Amino acid sequence: MADTPAANNTVRKHLSRISNDVLRKCALKLDTGAETLVEEFEKEWGPQMGDYSKKLVEFCCSKALSAMCGAIDETISDGSFSRFTFDMMLAWEMPTSANEESHNCVAKEKEEKVSTAADQLHDDVSLFYSDLMPLLVDRDSSAGEDAFVWLGTLVPLVVDMVNGRFTFETLTAPTGNRLHFPAYDKFLKEIHGCIKHLQTQETPTGVELADDEFILHVEGTASSQRVIRHIGGTSWPGRLTLTNYALYFEASGIVSYEKALKLDLSKDTQQTVKPVATGPWGAPLFDKAIVYESPEMQEGVVLEFPEMTSSTRRDHWLALVKEITLLHRFLTQYKVESPLEVWEMHSRAILGIIRLHAAREMLRISPPEPKSFLIFALLDELPKGDYVLYEIAESLKKKLTGGSHSCSASSILRNLNVPQHCVVSCVEPKGTMDEGEIVRPEKLLSLESAINQAREEAKEIDIAKSTTDGLKEDGISESAQVFMGLLDPLKSLVPWSRAILTWERPMATCIVIVLTQIVIYKEWFGKAISSFLLWVVAKMLQARRKGILEKQDKIIIRTGSDQTTMESIVSAQIGLRSVHEIMRQTNIALLKIWSILVSKAPKHANTVMIVLSGCAFVLAVVPFKLILAALVLNGFLMTSKFGKCMQSEQGNRRLKEWWDSIPVIPVEILDKETNKSE
User: Fold this and answer.
1) For the whole model, what pTM was predicted?
2) Inter-residue contact 189 to 76 (CB < 8 Å)
3) Beta-carbon count within 10 A of 142 CB
4) Which of 156, 211, 217, 335 is the most buried (most CB within 10 A)?
5) Left, alpha or beta for 217 (phi > 0: left; psi -120 to 50: alpha)?
6) How many CB atoms sit inside 10 A of residue 375's CB?
7) Among 82, 106, 98, which Cα is nearest to 19's?
8) Residue 275 burial (CB count, 10 A)
9) Tell me: the pLDDT tens digits for 115-166?
10) Residues near 50 by Cβ (< 8 Å), separated by ≥ 6?
11) CA distances from residue 38 to 8, 44, 63, 553 in whole angstroms, order as listed
């Protein structure tokens, strides 16, 4: 029997004002009484569960959202969903009256600091936040990061719990890392608007989309910016469409678009999508294009996104394509085969892309970093990101984040009238959760722990990388061309050496391995060196007999090519940029080694000392010739097909993350005169 209205309005002194208000609203949404909700919660609650008030708020909010998600389209339109869910975050952050009092005290102490920081940021933030800043004066109406991520565990519409903290940092950077209701409401409505806009997009010409294929981005239409496909020296404008399975390019015809070219992103093949420079007549003048390459195609498909200054559009498309590619790689790698689970992961990726669109609409002047909103792109770059992917796959198998409740990602898309796979409506999930158990945060502790660990290590690596930003890049002299020209005679050795090392010539590789092992085991190093020196002498005598000095008394370095002047300039710039990067990375490597030697990074120094001590012990006990023979044999075996199967991709990733986390010693460059005066 439902409680009376008076009972619903009863104030519970241990709860904060906002918690009481949320509890009352939850009861109204569920058409029951607040006391009934409390009694239902107390039947399940135990002291071991932790904070009574916070758990009560979580329980009531999950029950209410379960009912609201069925009509989420209407509640977003009338604004009730944004107001209610924002109040939920505030109640979760301040569940008790004691929390509310302490929060008010802290807010008053920080009020002056926040206003000062807002003034300093005013010139740098986007126009959206600048216009809203006068409205953001009520410190009690702002939510924090933990509350925002918690909401993502309940309903993954505004945020996904996997990248929620990165999304929050991006959205709240101009407002002191606090989320205010005007910004939250605007973001939610932009998400809703983006979904409706994408649903109105036309299907590519001559293409019948799959039942679970959803259009995610379109450009090249009359109302959007141009997209150009380059084929050799010709250029074709057209419309480019991205779905959660493929890219479709339709060349513009006289009246309508031609039949679409499909670039599949879902197949487990060796297709790649990467940035490339292009321009008129195929000249690599502008770095604003992408190229799609696949073993199934004879040549790559080059698509350019023209704009006046930066390559923001190209980078945006590249990020979206990468997200879809990584989604299908995840499904294949972790063998996610259940149609319900597959569509759930598709839905989460789709919502992530939609959130990115919404954020770009809000922050037009300063577009956000795409990976802060894209789940798989973020985890591909994040340290220990593969651990998080594993935990996501496990949570799917345990039905913790699947489409078995009304507030899952797939259910949200269905309730927003998004077309989807028929399996969602025709397959009944096994072991469906009870409504009150939509999300149990304690059941997601393993996933949350992996996410937090990855985030902390990402911060550590970012700090380490920031120490390399101040390194000065010196110029490179024109002697680089002479140096490369002198190395030309040695280029013929590269294909031969590569063929030996990669087992392209198995017989020759086996002969080299046997000879190397014999020389090492017999300790014929002197004989091997003497043989090499005699071979050099023989080559010198051969050159003298042929009279090479008389025929060619100087070395000619040819810098000309079949390229135009502009193409040569661009090629030179790319080459110089590559050499610059090599020198910079070498300097960073030397500085990292120095940091280890002087223990600027104690944790890494300890690891290196332990490894060096172990190596010293092995060298002292095992004959060196056996160690050297084993290393050489291992080097050849690792390049064989058998060795490649045994290589650990995860081990290489761990080593790279360890190296990236080493901070470098600062470098200060002084003029000679300054040094003398000091």
Assistant:
1) 0.76
2) yes
3) 24
4) 156
5) beta
6) 27
7) 98
8) 14
9) 444 444 444 444 445 444 444 444 557 899 999 999 998 899 999 999 999 9
10) none
11) 11, 10, 12, 97
